[in-house]
Amino acid sequence: MDQLTDALSAISHPTRRAIIGQLANGPARFLDIAKRFDTALNAVTKHLKLLERAGLIERERRGREVFISFRGEPLRKVAGWVHEYERFWNERLDQFEQHFRNKKKEKK
Amino acid sequence: MKEAKKTLDVRVERTIPAAPGEVFDGWLNPTIPGNPWNAAEKFILDPKVDGLFFWTLNDTSHYGRFTEVERPARIQHTWVSPNTLGEESTVTVTFKKQGQDTLMTLVHSGIPDTDAGRGHEKGWNYFLEIFPGQFGNGSRREK
């Protein structure tokens, strides 16, 4: 798969987005990441593998410990994929749809 | 004729809980939130074939000419703005009855595919918005 697809898959899961959120604050060790989630360690390992494959994290050995850090570049690619007009029209149509939903509610 | 430039199309669909006629009228009514004229600081709107529109927001002007106005099914107009590099792009909006609702489809075609349009920096901000609170409470925002 290409990097864009890998990045889109990687951010499609809430746990992986939470891991990105945590690592955006600074590097962390595997257990520091895992302890925040009520999930098996091997599930966290799987999430990290997917993030690593997408290039969103990298591992760095410091002495006896391995630190995992966030890399933003693949997200920039995803951001570039979303065209300004795509956002513009989605925002406009969201408002337009909401107007009619509100109107329907008022009628009831 | 236009040169074979790299362009892209944007397609957006919504199901609107009203009849096609009402939705069609709403799209051309500047008092209804969501249509392009509603948010404008200043606008001119003449929604008939060969009628023109203008609207401006944050010092960005948009111009166009209506090419199809077929109530309640279809509206088509050209769309010229700094983001289209002054070229005419086309916006086609269709309204299809779907039970008691209307399937509204908007296709914006012929948009020049530029880095400015893809707005990497703006796109980046978009991601900061959809990951609220996940990027260190704004303490580390990359540019």
Short description:
The complex is a heterodimer of chains A (108) and B (143). Chain A has 108 residues and is an alpha+beta fold.
Please characterize this protein's 3D structure.
The complex is a heterodimer of chains A (108) and B (143). Chain A is α+β, with helices and mostly antiparallel strands and 108 residues long. Chain A has helices at residues 3-10, 14-23, 30-34, 41-53, 73-81, 84-107; strands spanning 28-29, 57-62, 65-70. In chain A, strand 2 and strand 3 form a beta hairpin. In chain A, helix 1 (3-10) packs antiparallel against helix 4 (41-53) and helix 1 (3-10) packs across helix 5. Chain B has one domain (7-112): Alpha-D-Glucose-1,6-Bisphosphate, Chain A, domain 4, CATH 3.30.530.20. Chain B has three helices and seven strands. A seven-stranded antiparallel sheet of chain B has the order 1-7-6-5-4-3-2. The chains are: A alpha+beta (108), B alpha+beta (143). The A-B interface holds A 17-18, 20-21, 24-25, 72, 75-76, 78-87, 89-90, 92-101, 103-104 and B 8, 10, 12, 14-18, 22-23, 26-27, 32-36, 38-39, 83, 104, 106, 108, 111, 113, 115, 117-120, 122-124, 126-127, 131, 133-136, 139-140, 142.
